[in-house]
């Protein structure tokens, strides 16, 4: 192998949480200098987009005041946007506006409601599905048919965004946002239903709680966030194989490698021209 076949793979969005309380890396990149340094690491690992967020959306997270969120994300976006495509992970229109002014060209919106901002500024938009708010969303979420309900909501919002002139639209099932383990697995298994809408699909499973539950030990204790790489890679690879065009991840280097395999066209056995690492 000579390295990732980047021109043949789907996009990998690297997560940069400039927060003290994110579920897997809270505090690790908090503060402008640390966050910018981490952003450059993600770029070096092959991230196509760096997703800068200043407010955790984990279950139970406290809302962050507007001024504080601006203080967290704007300088980081200004510093990174000359080097990589930057998205902003926010549900606040003024933060999205300031992020775009600072160089972001994609609004990653877990509330699926900020398309007017994207339309006004001619930038891309990710519409993610969630049920409820971080404070309450994991308290007994229920659906009659989770796949259809998620698809219908996202298709409706995406149509509104397209009508408003948003130049680039992604839809995202919102794994873990008001979803049980079974809901998450159903959405992944039926990702083709989202792909069939004709919109580009992105998926974020990285290190999420359902992977911990699936990897629980014999005592039933969920695998901690640091031990969810296998599940993260497996679900990202599966989502890409099922037609997602982008995955949002913490572990960029490993995911780039996995994504390169998925995008690689199969060749008949015996036609390989590669000589290194023949085993
Ligand atoms: N998940 C999280 C945050 N933003 N955006 C999209 N489009 N899709 C997702 O699945 C998604 C998202 C939650 O993960 P993380 O940013 O690591 O944690 P926190 O919200 O605690 O900062």
Structural commentary:
- With 279 residues, the chain is α/β, with parallel strands linked by helices.
- It has 10 helices and 8 strands.
- Strands 1-2-3-4-5-6-7-8 form an 8-stranded parallel beta barrel, surrounded by 7 helices.
- The relative contact order is 0.14.
Question: Which helices and strands appear, and what pairs or packs with what?
Answer:
Layout: E1 11-17, H1 32-45, E2 49-53, H2 66-80, E3 85-89, H3 93-101, E4 106-109, H4 115-121, E5 124-128, H5 146-164, E6 169-172, H6 181-189, H7 191-195, E7 200-203, H8 209-214, H9 229-241, E8 246-249, H10 252-263
Parallel strand pairs: 1-2, 1-8, 2-3, 3-4, 4-5, 5-6, 6-7, 7-8
Helix pairs in contact: 1-2, 2-3, 4-5, 9-10
Bound molecules: 6-hydroxymethylpterin-diphosphate (HH2).
The number of helical elements comes to 10
Q: Estimate percent helicity.
A: 25-40%
Radius of gyration: 18 Å
- Give the end-to-end Cα distance, rounded to a whole number of Å: 11 Å
Q: Write down the overall geometry.
A: globular
- Biggest pleated-sheet summary: 8 strands, parallel, barrel
Spell out the helices and strands N to C. EHEHEHEHEHEHHEHHEH
As laid out across the biggest beta sheet, the strand order is 1-2-3-4-5-6-7-8
Structural category: alpha/beta
List ligands, each type once.
Answer: 6-hydroxymethylpterin-diphosphate
């Amino acid at each position: 192998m000579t390295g990732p076949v980047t021109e043949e793979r789907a996009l990998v969005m690297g997560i940069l949480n400039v927060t003290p309380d994110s579920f897997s890396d809270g505090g690790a990149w908090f503060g402008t200098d640390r966050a910018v340094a981490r952003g450059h690491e993600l770029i070096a690992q092959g991230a196509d987009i760096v997703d800068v967020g200043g407010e955790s959306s984990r279950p139970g997270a406290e809302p962050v005041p507007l001024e504080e969120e601006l203080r967290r994300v704007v300088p980081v976006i200004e510093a990174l946007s000359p080097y990589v495509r930057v998205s902003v992970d926010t549900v606040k229109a003024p933060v999205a506006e300031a992020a775009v002014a600072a160089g972001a060209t994609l609004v990653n919106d877990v509330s699926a409601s900020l398309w007017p901002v994207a339309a006004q500024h001619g930038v891309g938009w990710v519409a993610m599905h969630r049920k409820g708010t971080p404070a309450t969303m994991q308290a007994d979420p229920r659906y009659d048919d989770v796949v259809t309900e998620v698809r219908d909501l996202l298709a409706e919002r995406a149509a509104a965004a397209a009508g408003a002139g948003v130049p680039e639209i992604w839809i995202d099932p919102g794994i873990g946002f008001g979803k049980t383990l079974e809901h998450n697995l159903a959405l992944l298994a039926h990702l083709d239903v989202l792909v069939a809408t004709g919109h580009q699909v992105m998926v974020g499973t990285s290190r999420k709680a359902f992977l911990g539950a699936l990897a629980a030990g014999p005592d039933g204790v969920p695998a901690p966030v640091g031990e969810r790489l296998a599940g993260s890679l497996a679900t990202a690879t599966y989502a890409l194989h099922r037609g997602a065009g982008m995955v949002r991840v913490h572990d960029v280097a490993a995911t780039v490698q996995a994504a390169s395999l998925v995008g690689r066209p199969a060749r008949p056995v015996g036609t390989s021209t590669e000589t290194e690492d023949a085993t």
